[in-house]
Automatic annotation (TrEMBL), chains A, B:
SUPFAM superfamilies, alphabetized: Dehydroquinate synthase-like (SSF56796)
Any one GO molecular-function label of the UniProt entry: metal ion binding
Domain Fe-containing alcohol dehydrogenase-like C-terminal: residue ranges: 188-388
Domain Alcohol dehydrogenase iron-type/glycerol dehydrogenase GldA per the UniProt entry, residue ranges: 10-177
Lineage of source species: Bacteria, Bacillati, Bacillota, Bacilli, Lactobacillales
CDD domains, per the entry: BDH (cd08187)
UniProt keyword annotations, A-Z: Oxidoreductase
Domain of life, per lineage: Bacteria
Protein name: Uncharacterized protein
InterPro entries the record matches: ADH_Fe/GldA, ADH_Fe_C, ADH_Fe_CS, BDH-like
Record organism: Candidatus Enterococcus testudinis
Length: 395, 395
């Protein structure tokens, strides 16, 4: 196990009817609030009204930034930072999924920085101060509500990049499973694929003998695999939504990654799909993950892939390579059963036109060619994109 | 899933050679340090010298409180609180296992409180301020290094009681697996039994549909069951010690208990064994847990006990009650294989003289008779103590 620091001080308020605690939380930081949200689903489901009533009664001065895109854009970050300066914002209240929270994190930093927002992202690490951030999560997916990372897109340069900062960590996050009842089947499945991907990225690392982290990851994967079908069938099943929501947070708060080394594999490859084609992040990950697993399956990796198959999907086969293939098939079939389109053409990527450029960027903007679980060259990435262009079978 | 707040801000510094960070950490709080430790094992293994060198170079003014007992006594708490007042202590540095850390937590509160120390414990909850606490963990067991609880004994009144306080949470905890290399076989096994017991207490709760918490608990149990035999065979196996250490912390930092309801069962029963006979806490838990499982096995509880058997021990049996019994047997056999004495006479409790009084106290000082997984009467507790008096078989 590698050395690590685990210091995740976000105050999680989990459950129904917790928003009456919001005024007290915001008052810790001040009265001037920047309210950040996305396309307006919070206006349809009543959450916006609930929040505004709390803020009005609490005599907050509210500035709004709405319309944050699913792959949040650097232009939105710049606009938000400008609003923070103009209105002397004391605290940012992000209401939405990972995109809204990610966007808010970089706004929080950019508002207090002399750097141009895109330069801040290009640095990949921001050590400066940030405006305090409070979140109200409405989608179980990215885990951004309890970590220090953010992903921002620049459609002009066709780049989608992650940036981390110690002060990006939300101070308080409200997790109310009922806010996810109205999330569509497609977005629910995509969010869960994102959770599973985070767990898999950490699970297959270059560090051996990390049974604690791996056991936690297996437990979280099983919780998602059990509860996602329930939530798809019964969107207002509270416990299913609660399990998905809490799994999303724990999947990427450091718990399964701390003490392990190496670069992630599928996220850099997916970021290029999103950057070039603006597809749904979780869907891209679901499409790529089984193909990546097959691509890296060899004598050395078979035992860990077989452990995944046995512990997560209950595969009984004793020969590691066969068990591994059975596990990959089960993951693929699980995604299919949840209604996820499992080929690139199904999400509008119908030819190989950009595969080479995307593969080059995936390698250039990450370290997958150097220290991934199995290092991937530009050719490897192209092969995985090609494999993802048609339906697959692993047995 | 129940509503919960999860806010565990302890800064964990995990790994080898992290103690060079100690001066910077202590300087956050001040120069006057109360150094609390136990029976002197840290003098034998060199840890004391390493710490004192750091503190001397950092120009700390150090007051020492040594000799904290395995079941820490209220008299030691009172003495520590007095030292803090006399020497205007800024920060307490607890070096040891759960006993030293628990004792330090209550010292930290008592030093800033007008209450008599034992009154503070009897209240079971302390909402006042406390001196900041930094810990250096040397035993994987109680999880005290990352939570707000403490257990203190009063041998005069034959009581061993838990007390919680928001300000008992350690600010920073150093977890260096190498500090546990010299822990004896017996204490290593006892510590791991304590970890498993914490996970089992949370696992069997009155709240259903908590797959995230239960999946995490299963993963941590499997990590302990895999790594304890390695650590017993090879005491300086770094990864085995690292997995046990990190499992101990995560087993009781709120991760597996938040969102679940009900009272613990085996801890209140064990606390009476320790209070009356001063036995090793983890050993008492190992002895009681399989007996308790059998005692509560019925048609309603069989499915969860069977899940435990299948997920933790890989039992394949499909009939729930049989699977449950197989799981209980496997847990019992595991403890035996680790050298744990599994009957009360083997730890010096040779007759039933105090069973009734102990059972009455277990019920009086906890809520096991009201809201445990299966509520337990005085008669139930006596029956479990009686069953623990001879070797058991569950199949």
């Amino acid at each position: 196990m590698n050395n690590f620091t685990f210091h995740v001080s976000t105050d999680i308020r989990f459950g129904k009817d917790r928003l009456n605690e919001l005024p007290e939380v915001l008052n810790t930081y001040g009265k001037h609030v920047l309210l950040v949200y996305g396309g307006g689903s919070i206006k349809k489901n009543g959450l916006y009204d609930t929040i505004m009533q709390q803020l009005t009664e609490n005599k907050n001065q509210v500035t709004e930034l709405s319309g944050v895109d699913p792959n949040p854009r650097i232009e939105t970050v710049a606009a938000g930072a400008q609003l923070c300066r103009e209105h002397q914002i004391d605290v940012i209240l992000a209401v939405g999924g990972g995109s809204v929270i990610d966007c808010s994190k970089v706004i929080a930093g950019a508002a207090r920085s002399d750097q141009e927002p895109w330069d801040l992202v290009l640095n990949r690490s921001y050590q400066g101060s940030a405006i305090p951030l409070v979140t109200i999560l409405t989608l179980a997916a990215t885990g951004s509500e309890m970590n220090r990372g953010a992903v921002i897109s620049n459609l002009e340069t066709k780049q989608k990049l992650g940036v981390h900062g110690p002060n990006f960590l939300p101070k308080v996050s409200f997790l109310d499973p009922t806010t996810t009842f109205s999330v569509s089947r497609y977005q629910t499945a995509a969010g869960s694929a994102d959770i599973i991907s985070h767990l898999i990225e950490n699970y297959f690392s270059t560090t051996a003998d990390t049974d604690v982290q791996d056991g936690v990851a297996e437990g979280l994967m099983k919780a998602v695999i059990k509860n996602l079908p329930i939530a798809l069938d019964t969107p207002d099943d509270y416990d299913a939504r609660a399990n998905l929501m809490w799994a999303s947070t724990l999947a990427l708060n450091g718990l399964t990654g701390s003490g392990k080394g190496g670069a992630w594999s599928c996220h850099p490859m997916e970021h290029e799909l999103s950057a070039f084609y603006d597809i749904t992040h979780g869907i891209g990950l679901a499409i790529l993950t089984p193909r990546w697993m097959l691509h890296v399956l060899n004598e050395d990796t078979a035992p860990k892939l077989a452990r995944f198959a046995r512990e997560v999907f209950g595969v009984q086969e004793s020969v590691p390579e066969i068990a591994a293939r059975m596990g990959i098939q089960k993951l693929y079939d699980f995604f299919i059963s949840c209604g996820i389109p499992m080929t690139l053409p199904e999400v509008g990527i119908e030819n190989e036109q950009h595969f080479e450029e995307m593969a080059q960027q995936a390698v250039a903007f990450s370290s997958i060619s150097k220290n991934a679980y199995v290092p991937l060259s530009v050719e490897d990435v192209i092969a995985i994109y090609q494999d993802a262009s048609t339906p697959s079978s692993y047995m």
